[in-house]
Structure formats: structure tokens, C-alpha cells
């Protein structure tokens, strides 16, 4: 695959290194995604020089390597590979590669030996060893009391290493460049072979989705105790709750241990209140927003994919953790006599959906339905684990929530929300989020499901799938995030519900529209529902994971 690094960063499984090109400036940077998306990521701006003069260059990138070459001479280039997770290897021929550091006050470059420099990057709490294996390494980094004024590194005609670490560098032997390249290719081809099961008509999407899911994984470090699939290495480089479940579902069949690790990252950092973090990275855990409980939903589906997930200890772990998050919503997000509420649109994952324009807190039917479904699944898990009394309790809780849902958030026109301390009925009813009760279609009367499905077809279905805001709504907005664009996770939830509860025709139709959408808009964070154009972050893992899941579903 030819990789456009403006859209999809060059990286590899397990690495925090990546290389991308900024759309506005056209500058190419070596970046590092330690510390999450609030931390600075740019390490070095890259330039190619010939006889000391900057040259225009072409970026030739694939899943395996990235080459910056001269327009008029393909034998003059700098090529990058990542043969080990923390090692960036560079081969330079016929040109000079210049690395200009994006440094701040205390960042410090020092020469430790001939051809060997250590660079301390303060904001990232990271060190780099920059080492010449062969060739010529030239450094201009004038010292000024507490740090270098600037750092300008040039590499010529040789093989160079940039290695990252937190505390101390350990001497080692490095593979030659071609051996390293062959190693990366073998690792990636193994991954691709497990992800590329499906219709050849979708090969461009299969290639993108396979590479994005592979290259967006980082290795255990700091707070991350296992390999974690970030949402992206372009913009949203954290592992986010809710998002993680869809990535786990894609991994479950071929990489069960990695799939389980995506859930375990949040189980291990679950707050004593029962709340899961909003996101986790190697350095931070955030509880700013608490997403709906879908871990049990995801895990039940994983059990259908692989016997690994039927292990009693793992089922017990997910069971006990889910009990805690359910208790959190019961004790900390529910006023007496009411349904659980959101405190911000970000809690729902539908950040700016029209339902949330009326204020906070919001009693929303989707949250209650996720809780009902989770209680129903907990009842099944309880029986598997021999917890018959708890199974009855969970069934009763689900039944009571369902009765309250129908009493408080449903009328002859469908579902709606309530807002504020007085729980006033919200008039805005044009968001797709109010149609998510299809996920408990097994509990709804047929007439209710028919009403929801008819509404989906008339008001939300477009050429490319389900818009998140009715096209006739005054709140619909082009590139409006959750005010119209199509999103992968909710598309998956709707398709799964429709296929499961007797509406296979529309479920299959929406599935096929989503698959075709990726050929138009790639693996973007979300998509224009009318044109199919990819929007916002163009290298997103849950988009890729849902594509691969639905492609297997089709076959």
C-alpha cells in the first residue's frame, strides 16, 4: 500500500515513534506519542539537503518503510524503518538528512562519545540516543547555561539509530538496515493475513484498516501494563473507553490476548466508585467523563468468537468489574425515582448531539438501554458462574429499569430525554441517539421496533449509512461531529441490533453502505453522510475495526 502520511502516520505495532506530514505547512516530522494527545508529539522536523542546500523531496511510504527521496534522483534518499519498537533506523544515501529539534527550555543534547548523542526531552520525560552506526553524523547544538539554543543534526551516507527510553541507555547490537526491513515486513504480513479475510473488492479499505489497527498499537509503558491500541497516532493518541470495546471485538478472533488487554486496561484502572476512566495512556488516567457500560456487551460477543474468553477466571473478572460500574450508575448517577443521567454529552460518546443542547444533567434512553442490556448479560454470566441468586437480582433490576424507561422516556412519538433538576421533557428529538433503544429490541414490542426502524429509514438513512442527526433537522450541520456525520461504533450497534432482532434487510443494507463508504472516505473518525468524505482524524482504529468486523459479517 502507498501510504499518505498526511492522512495515516507511518509507524509500527508497539512503537511510540511515528512520522507524519502536516497538511497546512507540508512539513514532515518525526513524532512520539508518549503522554497522550495533550503532550507535545513533534520531535524533529525533517529536511533533505544536497551540497548544503535544501531540496524538494518526495515521500514514498508503505507499511514497512518510509523514504524521503529527491524528485530527480531516486538513488538519493533517506529511508526510515522501525525494526524494534523503540528503535527508529535511518539509512541515508547521496544526500544529507537534517533533523531540527522542536525543543523547549530545558531540553538538552549532549555528546557522550564519537557519533553518540543523548537528548533529554523534558515535557515528555523521555530520552533519545542518537547514534551513528556508519556514515557521518554532524551536530550543531550551542549550549546556553540550562540547555541548547537549538539542535540541528545532520546525517549523511550511512546507517543511524534513534532509540527512546525513560531512564538509562543499554548498549546493544543493532541489525543491519536490510535485515531490519525484512523483519518488519514479516511481522506486518503475519498481521495482514489475519485481518484481510474478505471480499477483494474492498482491498484498499482492507489495506488501510489492517495497517491502521497494526500501527496504532503501543507497547506496555508507565501506566499501560499491556499492549494498547490507541484510537490514532495522528491526533487522538489515547486508549478511550467505549472505543476500546470495538477494537477488542475486531481482535478477538485472531488475537484474543490483545483483545482482552483492551478491556483489562480499564478494569485495572477502575475507580473505587466503580467508574471506568474516560481514557488511559502511558502517563495519565482521566475520569472527566464516564462512558456507557458496554464491556459486558462486548465480552459476550467475544465469547462467541474464541474459547479464550470462556475461561471462568476471565468471565469472573469482567463480571465483577461490570457489577462495579453498574453500582456506580445506580449510586452516583441516579436521583430517587428517576433514570440514570449523563453530566455531559462527552459521557455518552455523542459529544455535541442535539439531545444535549438543552443543558445538563440528561436522562437519556440510550444510557438506560445500555444498563438494561448489561444487567441482562450479567444475569447470563451469573448463571455461568453459579451465582443464581445474583442472576435473579440482575434480571429484576433490568425489568424495573425497563418499566421506568417506558414510563419516563417514551410516548406515542417515540423516545425522548429529560433535562435539569426538574427533569423537564426535552423537545429536541432529532438525534439518532434517541433511536438507540433498538439495542434492547428483544424487550420492545414489535410495534415499537417497527416505529424505530421506519424512523431510521425515513429520517436518517442516506446513501452512505445512518446520519447522526436527521437530515431535515435545524440542528443538522455539515462536518458537525455528532450533528450529522456517520460514525462507525453506532453504525455497528444499529447493524447488530437490526440483524439480531428481525430486521436483517435494513441491517445488511446499512452494513453494505458502511463498507462502501470506506472506499470513499477511508478510515476517518467520521464521515459526511451526503458525500461520504472522511472528516476530522483520518486514521482511526475503531473505524478500521468496525470495517473489518462488518466485512467478516458479510462473508
TrEMBL record:
<dbReference type="InterPro" id="IPR008928">
    <property type="entry name" value="6-hairpin_glycosidase_sf"/>
</dbReference>
<dbReference type="GO" id="GO:0006487">
    <property type="term" value="P:protein N-linked glycosylation"/>
</dbReference>
<comment type="similarity">
    <text>Belongs to the glycosyl hydrolase 63 family.</text>
</comment>
<dbReference type="InterPro" id="IPR012341">
    <property type="entry name" value="6hp_glycosidase-like_sf"/>
</dbReference>
<dbReference type="GO" id="GO:0009311">
    <property type="term" value="P:oligosaccharide metabolic process"/>
</dbReference>
<protein>
    <recommendedName>
        <fullName>Mannosylglycerate hydrolase MGH1-like glycoside hydrolase domain-containing protein</fullName>
    </recommendedName>
</protein>
<keyword id="KW-0378">Hydrolase</keyword>
<dbReference type="InterPro" id="IPR004888">
    <property type="entry name" value="Glycoside_hydrolase_63"/>
</dbReference>
<dbReference type="InterPro" id="IPR054491">
    <property type="entry name" value="MGH1-like_GH"/>
</dbReference>
<dbReference type="Pfam" id="PF22422">
    <property type="entry name" value="MGH1-like_GH"/>
</dbReference>
<keyword id="KW-0326">Glycosidase</keyword>
<feature type="domain" description="Mannosylglycerate hydrolase MGH1-like glycoside hydrolase">
    <location>
        <begin position="237"/>
        <end position="543"/>
    </location>
</feature>
<dbReference type="GO" id="GO:0004573">
    <property type="term" value="F:Glc3Man9GlcNAc2 oligosaccharide glucosidase activity"/>
</dbReference>
Amino acid at each position: 500500500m502507498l501510504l499518505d502520511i498526511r492522512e495515516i502516520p507511518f509507524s509500527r505495532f508497539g512503537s511510540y515513534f511515528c512520522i507524519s506530514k502536516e497538511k497546512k505547512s507540508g512539513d514532515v516530522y518525526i513524532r512520539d506519542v508518549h503522554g497522550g494527545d495533550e503532550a507535545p508529539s513533534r520531535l524533529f522536523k525533517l529536511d533533505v539537503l544536497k551540497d548544503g542546500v535544501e531540496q524538494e523531496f518526495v515521500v514514498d511510504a508503505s507499511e514497512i518503510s518510509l523514504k524521503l527521496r529527491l524528485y530527480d534522483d531516486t538513488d538519493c534518499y533517506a529511508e526510515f524503518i522501525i525494526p524494534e519498537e523503540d528503535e527508529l533506523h535511518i539509512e541515508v544515501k547521496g544526500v544529507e538528512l537534517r533533523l531540527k529539534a522542536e525543543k523547549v527550555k530545558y531540553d538538552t543534547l549532549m555528546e557522550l562519545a564519537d557519533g553518540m548523542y543523548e537528548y533529554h526531552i523534558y515535557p515528555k520525560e523521555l530520552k533519545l540516543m542518537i547514534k551513528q552506526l556508519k556514515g557521518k553524523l554532524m551536530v550543531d547544538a550551542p549550549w546556553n547555561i540550562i540547555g541548547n539554543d537549538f539542535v540541528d543534526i545532520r546525517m549523511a551516507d550511512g546507517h543511524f539509530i534513534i532509540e527512546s527510553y525513560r531512564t538509562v541507555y543499554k548498549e546493544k547490537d543493532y541489525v543491519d538496515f536490510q535485515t531490519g526491513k525484512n523483519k518488519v515486513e514479516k511481522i506486518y504480513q503475519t498481521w495482514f493475513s489475519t485481518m484481510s479475510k474478505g471480499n477483494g473488492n474492498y482491498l484498499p479499505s482492507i489495506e488501510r484498516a489492517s495497517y491502521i489497527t497494526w500501527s496504532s498499537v503501543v507497547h506496555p509503558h508507565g501506566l499501560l501494563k499491556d499492549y494498547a491500541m490507541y484510537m490514532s497516532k495522528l491526533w487522538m493518541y489515547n486508549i478511550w473507553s467505549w472505543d476500546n470495546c470495538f477494537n477488542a471485538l475486531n481482535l478477538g478472533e485472531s488475537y484474543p490476548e490483545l483483545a482482552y488487554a483492551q478491556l483489562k486496561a480499564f478494569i485495572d484502572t477502575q475507580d473505587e466508585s466503580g467508574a471506568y476512566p474516560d481514557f488511559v495512556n502511558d502517563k495519565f488516567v482521566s475520569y472527566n467523563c464516564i462512558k456507557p457500560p458496554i464491556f459486558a456487551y462486548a465480552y459476550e460477543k467475544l465469547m462467541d468468537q474464541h474459547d479464550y474468553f470462556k475461561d471462568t477466571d476471565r468471565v469472573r473478572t469482567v463480571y465483577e468489574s461490570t457489577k462495579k460500574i453498574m453500582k456506580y450508575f445506580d449510586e452516583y448517577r441516579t436521583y430517587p425515582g428517576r433514570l440514570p443521567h449523563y453530566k455531559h454529552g462527552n459521557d455518552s460518546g455523542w459529544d455535541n448531539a442535539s439531545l444535549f443542547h438543552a443543558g445538563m444533567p440528561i436522562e437519556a434512553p440510550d444510557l438506560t438501554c445500555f444498563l438494561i442490556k448489561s444487567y441482562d448479560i450479567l444475569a447470563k454470566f451469573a448463571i455461568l458462574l453459579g451465582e443464581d441468586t445474583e442472576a435473579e437480582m440482575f434480571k429484576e433490576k433490568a425489568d424495573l429499569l425497563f418499566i421506568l424507561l417506558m414510563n419516563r422516556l417514551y410516548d406515542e412519538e417515540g423516545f425522548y430525554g429529560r433535562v435539569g433538576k426538574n427533569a423537564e421533557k426535552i423537545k429536541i428529538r432529532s438525534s439518532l441517539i434517541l433511536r438507540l433503544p433498538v439495542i434492547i429490541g428483544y424487550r420492545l414490542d414489535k410495534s415499537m421496533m417497527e416505529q424505530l426502524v421506519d424512523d431510521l429509514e425515513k429520517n436518517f438513512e442516506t446513501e452512505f449509512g445512518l446520519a447522526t442527526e436527521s437530515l431535515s433537522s435545524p440542528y443538522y450541520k455539515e462536518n458537525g461531529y455528532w450533528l450529522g456525520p456517520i460514525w462507525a461504533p453506532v453504525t455497528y450497534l444499529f447493524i447488530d441490533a437490526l440483524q439480531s432482532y428481525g430486521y436483517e434487510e435494513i441491517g445488511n443494507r446499512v452494513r453494505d453502505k458502511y463498507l462502501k463508504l470506506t472506499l470513499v472516505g477511508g478510515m476517518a473518525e467520521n464521515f459526511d453522510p451526503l458525500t461520504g468524505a472522511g472528516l476530522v482524524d483520518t486514521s482511526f482504529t475503531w473505524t478500521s475495526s468496525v470495517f473489518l468486523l462488518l466485512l467478516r459479517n458479510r462473508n
